[in-house]
Design a protein that fits this description.
Blueprint (H helix, E strand, L loop, with lengths): L1 E2 L11 E2 L4 H5 L8 E4 L2 E9 L2 E5 L7 E2 L7 E6 L7 E5 L4 E4 L11 E2 L13 E6 L7 E5 L8 E5 L7 E4 L10 E6 L8 E5 L2 E5 L1
Antiparallel strand pairs: 1-2, 3-4, 4-5, 5-6, 7-8, 8-9, 9-10, 11-12, 12-13, 13-14, 15-16, 16-17
Length: 202
């Protein structure tokens, strides 16, 4: 992972930011997700093969904020200086960390039991937070299965979030690799990046 502070320059300079030896020893995926906090650009959350790490100073220092959790992939971050972070992955594992900018490992909340039984064996590949409602997430799954691939998760700040299938007329068995709400109409207009092009709904 690298950072530039002069991206508008003709030849921007880059510096590596994942210099924590313990973090690097946990290994990464070939395509490894990370998520910036849009309310605080110095804050970044990155997954390893054993958990979730946080930096609050643009990568100068990293802190692990979960216990060892494997097969985690997706990360969703609220737009707050001390945000709520959700993360998930294989077998629809689904967790929340409150006050993630200051949280320590072991404070994560396991919400996996809230996931509908029809998708508990599926791969939760993306989580995006509603731009103006921190209690709502959009979730997508990347498996080649007949199960619904796109979901709205409400009450995500509670102990028992509600999952609603919003797959609509998306083709069955089509992996949805990412889902994102339009900031100007987040309750209606969504975009889904799939294995076979970009879909939208209003």
């Amino acid at each position: 992972m690298s950072r530039t502070t002069n991206f508008t320059a003709t030849s921007p300079s880059w510096s590596g930011i994942n210099t924590n030896t313990t973090m690097n020893n946990e290994d990464f995926l070939f395509i490894n997700p990370f998520q910036i906090n849009y309310a605080d650009g110095d804050q970044l959350y990155c997954r390893t093969n054993q958990g979730l790490w946080r930096t609050v100073n643009r990568g100068a220092n990293w802190t692990k904020i979960t216990n060892t959790i494997s097969s985690m992939y997706s990360i969703g971050v609220t737009r707050q200086t001390n945000p709520t972070v959700w993360y998930g992955g294989s077998s629809a594992r689904f967790y929340r960390i409150n006050n993630a900018a200051t949280a320590s490992a072991g404070t994560e909340v396991d919400l996996s039991s809230s996931v509908p039984s029809s998708i508990t064996n599926d791969y939760l590949v993306a989580l995006s937070v509603h731009p103006s409602n921190n209690t709502i997430l959009y979730a997508s799954f990347s498996d080649f299965k007949n199960n619904p691939r796109a979901w709205r998760v409400s009450g995500a700040n509670t102990g028992s979030p509600t999952w609603t299938n919003i797959s609509g007329d998306l083709p069955t068995r089509l992996p949805v690799n990412y889902i994102q709400a339009d900031p100007d109409a987040p309750d209606n207009t969504l975009f889904a990046g799939t294995d076979f092009g970009l879909y939208y709904t209003t």
